Here is the input.
Amino acid sequence: MGTRPRVHPPAAARRRTRGVERGAATLELVVIFPVVLLITFGVIEAALWYHARNVALAAAEEGVRVATGDGGSLDAGIGEARDFALRAGADDILSAVTVDSAGDDTEVSITVSGHSLSLFPGWSGHEVSQTASGPVERFTMPD
Here is the structure.
């Protein structure tokens, strides 16, 4: 059996096919990279917002726990919510923290608001507001 000699295409044809592909990887990188970067920053921004939301909710719940406890007051609950937010890193995670309250002798509600941390300079982040409420613990006499 004889072996068939290998036939190579002419040099001009080889150059033509290589020239079509030239720079395609760079072009793909230029188009795809900003999209990937934007998606990555979006995921991180969403995670920061979610974490700030959890910190605000935990601070509001802690304030309600203190305010509704035996001998607790609404002012003590507000102070505890503010202190909890600061201990949890409010300056970094949740900025411009405000604590509002509402309640009467039977139920207390505390709202913690602020802005989440942002990756983009000059932008204060997303608005975060979480509310927790609970019944006031008190002793009652049986009827």
Summary: Residues 28-135 form one domain. The chain has a mean pLDDT of 83.
